[in-house]
Design goal:
With 180 residues, this protein is an alpha+beta fold. It has five helices and five strands.
């Protein structure tokens, strides 16, 4: 020990020795936490910071999903770069376990469309409809006393899938989701 000679006793029941043991244990605990924090810096090894990683990448923290699946979803979100093609998004959804199709719409054009076709405005070319065949979509129903004026009577949402698509979609596009 680096204490002046005579200021402590070498016996195991010495108060100074007990105090130093407590401080040493606290410092060892700090070192262990610092070592664990190094593994939290990488998303594939994170445990305590997983909710923070998910929040950073716009992933809804769903505790019903297993830890390995959450890590896979996080790594998919990190590695996804986005694209302008429907095929990219269909493949991305398939990697995440969803079966989707994407519909694009065209405005009504004389000479091209026929009587009975839907009449869309010109800006409809910027809208995608993602039709999701298998999803864990949560159903929200209008409830008197809870819902507000203007709320939908019935609303479906899969926050994880919608978050990924909205984060990676082209900036000029609007995406709507149709759950079947």
């Amino acid at each position: 020990m680096l204490l002046p000679y005579g200021t402590y006793s070498d016996s195991a029941d010495s108060e100074v020795l007990k105090d130093l043991t407590v401080q040493a244990d606290a410092l060892e605990n700090c070192q262990d936490n610092a070592d664990a924090l190094l593994s939290e810096c990488y998303p594939d090894g994170t445990v305590q910071l997983l909710p923070d990683w998910e929040s950073t990448y716009g992933i809804t923290n769903d505790s019903s999903i297993s830890y390995p699946a959450r890590i896979d979803n996080l790594l998919a979100a990190i590695n996804a770069r986005g694209s302008l093609t429907k095929d990219y998004f269909i493949t991305l959804a398939a990697k995440l376990g969803y079966t989707v199709t994407i519909e694009e719409f065209l405005p009504f054009m004389a000479g091209w469309n026929e009587a009975g076709d839907e009449i869309w405005i010109e800006d409809i070319i910027y809208v995608w409809e993602v039709v999701v065949s298998n999803s864990n979509a949560v159903s929200y129903y209008f409830e008197a006393g809870i819902s507000c004026s203007g709320d939908s009577l019935n609303y479906f949402s899969d926050a994880y899938l919608e978050g990924i698509f909205n984060r990676l979609k082209p900036a000029h596009a609007a995406v709507s989701f149709n759950y079947q």
